[in-house]
Write a structure and sequence with these properties.
4 helices
Length: 85
């Protein structure tokens, strides 16, 4: 007989899309700017990382955007993040 619970176990391990990008972005932003941003304050859509933070924090991130993008893509080993907004 087919056991549905063992079949559904594999879906518990699947991460939501963008979680790996958020986990790579957190240390990259902290290293460049010195500000910790939670995963709930980030959103990834079509290769763009959106920050849902106050504008003062966004300005600090934008001033270091090139370095942050390089760090994120180095952590992920591929160019998945094209821009930060």
């Amino acid at each position: 007989m087919f056991n549905i619970s063992s079949y559904l176990e594999k879906f518990k391990r699947i991460e939501p899309p963008g979680d790996t990008v958020k986990e790579a972005a957190q240390p990259a932003i902290f290293e460049a700017v010195g500000i910790k941003i939670d995963k709930q304050e980030m959103e990834v859509k079509d290769g763009v990382l959106f920050l849902l933070v106050p504008s003062a924090v966004k300005n600090e991130v934008y001033m270091n955007k090139r370095g942050i993008l390089e760090k994120i893509n180095n952590i992920l080993k591929e160019k998945t993040v094209k821009d930060i907004r």
